[in-house]
Amino acid sequence: MHLWRLSGAEFAERFDGGYGYACDGRWNSRGNPVTYCSTGPALCVLEKLVHVEDASLLPDDTMLVRYDVPDDVEFDVTRLGDLPPEWRAVTRITRSRGDNWLRAESSCLMSVPSAVVPVAETADRNIMINHRHQDASRITISRIERFDYDPRLFAHG
Prior knowledge:
Elements (H helix, E strand, L loop, with lengths): L1 E7 L9 H5 L11 E5 L2 H9 L12 E7 L6 E3 L13 H14 L4 E4 L13 E5 L9 E7 L11
Parallel strand pairs: 4-5
Antiparallel strand pairs: 1-3, 2-6, 3-7, 5-6
């Protein structure tokens, strides 16, 4: 399986869950080593853009990182139907679920729905990598390439 992540060049080669150590995320509280990825590059772009208020603040050195995950690496799945209706607005719900999964170390990966594209039964999913799980060491970076956003994404009018 391939997973995808957008990153600034400075962090593209890092694979240690540093984001989760430093920041709260939708599915984690700060202090947990976790890497957020998506099952495809397009979802990565949407997940990044939803947080951008000013396109001029996007880094000029955005990189698209592809990870290779061995087929036998186990993952847990959270489906839309597993979540209460208010899950997109109340991050406490998803953080609690993600933090419990991270602590349990029951699997290396957790597949979660996108809050940006909350469509049931789609292959477009976000994937969390638990760096505390032993299988995280089996995931490798297979490609890093420059990524330029299409300027039409930022054209207004």
